[in-house]
Amino acid sequence: MNQSQTSFDENKWFHLFKNKARVLYPSSDPAHDFLHIQRVVNTAKSLCEAEHGLWEVVMPAAFFHDFINVPKGDPRRPYASALSAEAAVEYLKSVDYPEQYLEDIRHAIEAHSYSANIKPTTLEAKIVQDADRLDSLGAIGIARCFATSSLMSRPFYSEEDPWAEKRDLDDKNYGIDHFYQKLFKLMDHLNTETAKKEAEHRVAFIKSYLAQIKREI
To answer: In CATH, what number is assigned to the domain containing residue 149?
Structure first.
């Protein structure tokens, strides 16, 4: 273990980043607010411990993966993670975060985004990507999907064909479609075995929830 690792004050950085994140992420978008960041950080911590990742990289990347929030439908959306990575690295430099971690943090933030389609090449980037994607699944994933539906003025389902039996899936216009068009597919795009096992439980919960919706409508 080198000197920079032995002198790393995790508690100091964690609280600094948490306070920064608290003012950085607005409550106007419940799918990408401070609570989302807290969940991703907590999940990333668990994955980091299970997969033996470097927390010095994972922690700041998890806190600041959405540093620049670009709304859905904005033409800059595919570049949001690159914009966030650049802004996060500049912030980390301003608070004198250990320089040897910055490029790996940059990559972890750039690669976390589904729309950016950047393959994670480090364990830490894989962990951050998995932690963010797990937050799209399970009970929280359901809540985030319908919160986004409200922001998009998107109805929960199609009146004529709620389950897309005679039409193409269209998650730009129907909330339930998003589970089938994107969220269930996340299972095939997770990196770590720990995340894959957790995703199985979360997807099973969503499917039971959708079965209940089918009974109700």
So the answer is: 1.20.58.1910
